[in-house]
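Dear H.,

Thanks for agreeing to be a second pair of eyes. The structure we're designing against is below in token form, covering all 166 positions.
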């Protein structure tokens, strides 16, 4: 009769090794989470991390409803974090639509300046109500996202001597 002890010993080693690997995977998942594991939607991709520090507008100029702006006056929108408009991650619309350029100053990387394009528009028209919207989805280079829209409205008056009715 053939001796079966070496075969049984090798099968026990294989079973013991599989149990050890399973135990190590379980310990890893307990201590390090399940990053990279499908969350149940079937795509096999871990959902992106939501920004902990959302982007916010903290100030804008001009402030107030009625302004007297020359046709090329830049509008300033200040954020609570550094932004880079060259990365095309700050989304802005102006109604009524005019062509504009957006830029930052190196001395103030938290602000975006909007200036009517000297070649594509006549600038801010007088007696016109403008609404500038920074839309949700705008983000910093670090990926912090703006959660809601920010709206600035003003009327560009033809005169800075405004008389209000009593």
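And this is the sequence the design step returned. I haven't edited it by hand at all.
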């Amino acid at each position: 009769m053939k001796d079966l002890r070496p075969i049984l010993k090798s099968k026990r080693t294989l079973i013991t090794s599989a149990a050890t690997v399973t135990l190590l995977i379980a310990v890893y998942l307990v201590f390090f989470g399940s990053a990279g594991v499908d969350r149940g939607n079937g795509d096999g991709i871990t959902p992106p991390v939501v920004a902990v520090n959302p982007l916010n507008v903290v100030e804008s100029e001009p402030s107030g409803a009625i302004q007297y702006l020359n046709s090329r006056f830049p509008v300033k929108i200040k954020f609570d974090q550094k932004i880079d408009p060259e990365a095309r991650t700050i989304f802005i619309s102006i109604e009524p639509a005019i062509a504009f350029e957006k830029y930052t100053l190196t001395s103030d990387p938290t602000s975006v300046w909007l200036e009517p394009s000297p070649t594509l528009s006549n600038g801010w028209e007088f007696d016109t109500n403008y609404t500038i919207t920074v839309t949700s989805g705008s983000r910093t280079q670090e990926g912090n996202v703006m959660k809601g829209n920010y709206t600035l409205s003003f009327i560009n008056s033809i005169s800075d001597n405004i008389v209000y009715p009593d």
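Two observations from my side: The chain has two domains: 1-47, 57-156. The chain has a mean pLDDT of 74.

Warmly,
E.
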